[in-house]
Design goal:
homodimer, about 500 residues, mainly alpha, Flavocytochrome C3, Chain A, domain 2, two-stranded antiparallel sheet, two-stranded antiparallel ribbon, 6 strands
């Protein structure tokens, strides 16, 4: 072939290659366009839409993965039946919460899809016989359903928090879902619960200034936080208004000081008479202490990592423990074998757990010793500092364990808190030993026999049969009407 | 130009390029050969050579970098003068160590090059007036100098450990150096101290099977460990034989159980009369609990990272805190800003430190309360469990802090230990409260005024002027003869 012919051939080949590249480029663009269509359909969802299935029509992948939160198979990591009875696991908790709902019933957490099922079935919400009855206030619904922002919009925040839990059972019918975190208008992340925005305000921050990455944690922080019901807000007296105790900061000592300053207590302990605090689930606060938070990792990065299906990259809405899904969560950053990563987490959990168990025993003993002191005629004045020690020690224990994930998120902070809790619990017992000696009993008060949940519940005087019967009646008579009313 | 001419030109260019590549290859090979020469000279070093400068003639880079351990500028991270007085920093330590040498004098660590200087100048080694005098045994030299393996070779291990510290002052004249870790024959890493090999044996392990990577930590573990002097070895009775308490394992509870089983104590506390344990510097044990150890990182990786000078890559023998050199230590793996990495470490240190300070206070109080109980006529029987609690609690505190680096190496393990130490210290105080009530004093024993080191030393009855005078006399009369004898 001549040089000329060769040059011509080269030109032709070049033209063909460039043409094919053009086709490829067009193809890529088309697929991108498809992806855009799949992610941003023209949607018509009402701003108050609480039915997750309606959202699911537009976002099938997100919806279908969210429905997987009903899958309890991974929970076997925690237990055999996926809903481990934590009072069975540690009957000490029954004594620690004597006089408070948690001593009746407390299970390991399951998926978001069970939110309503859980709160309706727990003995903690008791057996209401109709509106205005039962032990819990309406505020307890706040974190359970996208019907909450809808209802708040419809009747106002104060009105929502007002009244009994049973009053709004027919209104709250969709389990946690889309509208809790998403804006129906633009699908962006939104804060649907006023308490978080108000908590930020109390710290002098404006939540509307949060970045998208921060929002990927903050939507979770609407519920996974420490909170209390403030019944003394001027102009709203008597309404159990949901509030985060963040005015002094989000540290365990900050919140303790806050509660002490306003002399708040969740309940009075039925044995020691201590003015107790129940730590709820300060997950966001403890996560904020973590090295992951410092490196800019958000809740969603590990609990809802990206996933690809049919060429579509989307956020996996099967919210779960990252330990169930290390390849998409941990291993995106950590180049270690699954076994080794999970081994590290387990080791931290075991260390914190050992501390927690020992502290539980000290606290049980302190309550019982305080009970003995009252029995022997101790005065309020003699008991005051002791009860404050018990309050602070148990608060620290509870704060460390209540959010479940803390041993992963911030194991050292948990341990630090546990150390101080241990010191203070023993301080209470030291003062009690002196007081008991003064009252004529200078020998150890025996540790109660609370080997099982049943023994512990009997020890604190709970009539479990009655509670269960009330619940059964509620489930037979009331619960079906809620479902029915909501369907109509 | 014709096609033919062009082809010829191409051929010539190819030949030239290939020739130049050959030259380059040869050059590279030469440089490699030079490097081999620089690293593996034909050396003639006696197997007992203790003079670091002799080794330095063959390994100038390693030697010169090792000499930098005399540089105290980074120690300003800890203090202004590079040798912070830790008893000044926390006068509580004086009371915790009452009756033991550490209450006299205890400074922050400095570089390896100061090993002899330090031990000669500390008040802990007292003011010997000649052979056979002074408070410390010969065993105390064990970690201080490459003269130790030499002397052990020459006179035998038992003979080395025998006698007083002052007996061998003239023999030990070179500070920690080359022969402590290196084999003069092949420059490989070697275990020069029998205690580590024996410690491995006690655990059923054979240290000669250690990999090179393990050796990069084990040479450090010859000294940076927990140890005690066993005077009851059959056939060697009375010789303070250096031993690691590893038979049950390297955990803090394992060693505690070991010491309890053999009823060993380092000293009897002069106030509480508790049979105390002094944790030495369990650095290797706590490092073994670390995530770095789990990932196969060795001591040398961070404390002696690789360095390049004049095209030569070598191990930096300027052994120091990795925080003084994060770019070569931390940042080889961690892609984070120095400030952020050091911030993480500081945060962990601060958390552990807070726990340590609180525990120190409890322990001081426990010793003082126990002293009061003795004063009021407590019996041995009444005190027994209390003193064991004090022993265990202080052991755990000391174990957590004594190795200095533990808050970096294994902060969670430190905190876990501190939690248990706190619980046990308070348990002692609880029992003491009951005992004191029984003995007629049912009110708190005041915490002593130990605001300064001087006050604390006065409180425990130390005659510091006398100790200092003895030391001054030793430095004037004895120390110069050691230097002289060794030079001759």
């Amino acid at each position: 072939m001549s040089t000329k012919a060769r040059n011509w051939m080269l030109l032709i080949i070049t033209i063909v290659v460039v043409f094919l590249l053009g086709v490829l480029a067009s193809n890529i663009t088309n697929r991108k366009a498809e992806a855009r269509f799949a992610y941003m359909p023209k949607i018509e969802i009402d701003e108050n839409e609480a039915d997750n299935a309606v959202w699911g029509e537009y976002f099938p992948r997100e919806y279908q993965s969210f429905m997987q939160t009903l899958d309890t198979s991974f929970a076997s990591y925690n237990s055999k039946n996926g809903h481990k009875d934590l009072l069975d696991d540690s009957p000490r908790l029954v004594v620690l919460w004597a006089g408070y709902g948690f001593s009746k019933d407390y299970n390991a957490p399951v998926g978001h899809g069970y939110a309503l099922n859980d709160i309706q079935n727990t003995l903690r919400t008791g057996g209401p016989t109709g509106p205005g009855t039962g032990p819990m206030p309406s505020t307890c619904w706040t974190c359970k359903s996208p019907d909450v922002p809808r209802l708040m919009n419809e009747i106002g925040i104060d009105e929502f928090y007002k009244g009994k839990w049973a009053d709004k059972g027919h209104e709250i019918v969709n389990p946690i879902g889309c509208a809790d975190c998403h804006d129906a208008g633009n699908m962006g992340l939104r804060i649907s619960r006023p308490a978080l925005a108000e908590g930020f305000e109390a710290m002098g921050k404006d939540i509307s200034e949060a970045s998208h990455n921060e929002m990927r944690s903050l939507v979770c922080a609407q519920c996974h936080v420490e909170y209390y019901f403030d019944k003394k807000i001027p102009g709203k007296e008597g309404i159990p208004y949901l509030k985060f105790p963040w005015k002094n900061g989000m540290g365990v000592e900050d919140m303790e000081a806050y509660y002490d300053a306003i002399e708040f207590s969740d309940w009075t302990h039925s044995i020691s008479k201590a003015p107790m605090l129940k730590a709820q689930h300060p997950g966001y606060e403890l996560f904020s202490e973590s090295v992951h938070a410092k490196r800019g990792v958000s809740c969603a990065d590990c609990h809802m990592p990206y996933k690809t299906e049919g060429g579509q990259k989307f956020t996996d809405h099967h919210i779960q423990s990252p330990l169930a899904n290390p390849s998409n969560s941990c291993q995106v950053c950590h180049r270690e074998e699954t076994k080794s990563l999970i081994g590290d987490v387990t080791e931290r959990q075991v260390k914190n757990k050992t501390e927690a168990v020992e502290l539980e025993k000290l606290l049980v003993h302190a309550h019982v010793e305080a009970g003995k002191a009252w029995e022997l005629g101790a005065t309020e004045e003699q008991m005051k500092l002791i009860l404050m020690d018990i309050r602070h020690a148990q608060w620290r224990w509870d704060y460390s364990v209540a959010s479940h994930g803390a041993s992963f998120h911030a194991p050292l902070e948990v341990s630090r808190i546990m150390t101080s809790g241990t010191r203070i619990a023993q301080e209470a017992r030291l003062k009690l030993a002196r007081l008991l000696a003064e009252l004529g009993q200078n020998y150890p008060v025996p540790y109660p026999n609370i080997e099982t949940k049943a023994l512990a519940q009997e020890y604190i005087g709970l009539d479990m049969e009655k509670l269960k019967a009330e619940k059964a009646k509620f489930k037979k008579n009331i619960l079906p009407t809620w479902m029915k009313e909501s369907v109509e």
